[in-house]
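TL;DR need structure tokens for one chain.
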Amino acid sequence: MGTQCAECGYPVAEIPGVAPNERNPCPSCGSWARLVMLEVAGEVALRGSLHLKGRHGPRGRWFVEMFVGADYWRNGRRWMTKLRRIDRDADTYDEVVSDPDTGETIYEQHEPLRQHWGHGDDRRTANGE
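>> reply
TL;DR here they are.
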């Protein structure tokens, strides 16, 4: 951060934001105009994911569904990496959730799809509500 003369670029020892009537003229060229240089830094984190469904024909029922990428974990209040594959034809449900910073597996489940009920949208019907 610094202040300099807007005309000639000479460094001026002034506090940024001083009113023009309180400034001293530039010792090099006599100008009253100033240029204040500020440095601003920030960070942006980008995350991506892909959700897809495979179908038998253009109007057929989906037989495979996948999700891969960043997913927000509400209980842990942070972003995780998730890989979920649901295959109706092969009767499989696979899900792996891992910490992107450490690579540690947080949750892993592999089971026949016919046994995977009472989760997500199915919770209401599994509880009888």
